[in-house]
């Protein structure tokens, strides 16, 4: 966040970019999932007053279309003012001026059910459902994996020693607050096998005292609609470039699940593939 008077000291292009970042931070603060260090902290004015000041600055931008200016002014006149909608509208108009298309994780900010002041009090999940992310190098992809895992009820995420740090700023951004609210641990393949067999890492529950099946999401296996998903288990997903390592495939004692594809490339982003897999797994549990 930046004091409104400081924005006038910035040049046009720099001011627009800073405004866009401020509106994005405000959206997350309103939703209760502000990133650490970007919470609203100005005591001299309320958050709504601050938001209106930033929108007023934007309305003075000579490149802002009259229609957009009118829309923003009408939003500020509403009673009560929808802060989040006002921020989102202002940021999208700014990005249109800048010439930058917002990413999907910039636009969708999902507040957590059961949250109080941004902290989830109780998270619902399927006991015994785990994912092991092997060597995921893209922080955006890892954040997406956490977001899907949280949404679909995974109990815990395990990551390999060479995975990108989940606390990377881009991972946190694409994770939309899920990394902070989902248990995770970094394990080697040997430690993963120990966890599945019940030796664990000191954090296992009663559900993991018996051998947990381990299966892989990879090409060349059983199609999803034919795969017999376990009630509890660990799914391994591989790196963007190389897929699952031979060593990881060797410990997949429950087999391999495959997403049938018809395209020429027959290639899916790892986060998308994981989402498809999890939907099938969870659906099998409900049946």
Structure, described:
This protein is of the alpha/beta class and 287 residues long. It is built from 12 helices and 8 strands. The protein has a 6-stranded parallel sheet with strand order 5-4-3-7-6-8. A two-stranded antiparallel ribbon has the order 1-2. Helix 2 runs antiparallel to helix 3 (47-59). Mean pLDDT is 83; it is low at 104-120 and 199-204.
Q: Could you provide a short overview of the structure?
A:
This protein is α/β, with parallel strands linked by helices and 287 residues long. It is built from twelve helices and eight strands. 44% of the residues lie in helices and 12% in strands.
Summary tags:
287 residues, 44% helix, six-stranded parallel sheet, alpha/beta
Q: What's the layout of helices and strands?
A:
Elements: H1 4-7, H2 12-31, H3 47-59, H4 66-77, H5 83-98, H6 104-107, E1 115-116, E2 119-120, E3 129-133, H7 139-152, E4 156-159, H8 169-175, H9 178-181, E5 184-186, H10 189-197, E6 214-223, E7 233-237, H11 246-250, E8 256-258, H12 270-286
Helix pairs in contact: 2-3, 2-5, 3-4, 3-5, 4-5, 7-8, 7-12
Class by helix and strand content?
alpha/beta
Give me the Rg, rounded. 22 Å
Number of DSSP helices?
Answer: 12
The largest sheet is:
6 strands, parallel
Helix/strand order, N-terminal first: HHHHHHEEEHEHHEHEEHEH
What is the β-strand count? 8
Taken from the alpha-carbon principal axes, the silhouette is elongated
> In what order do the strands lie side by side in the largest sheet?
5-4-3-7-6-8
Mean pLDDT: 83
Q: Proportion of β residues?
A: 5-15%
**Fraction of residues in helices?**
40-55%
Poorly predicted parts: 104-120, 199-204
Euclidean distance between termini CA atoms? 48 Å
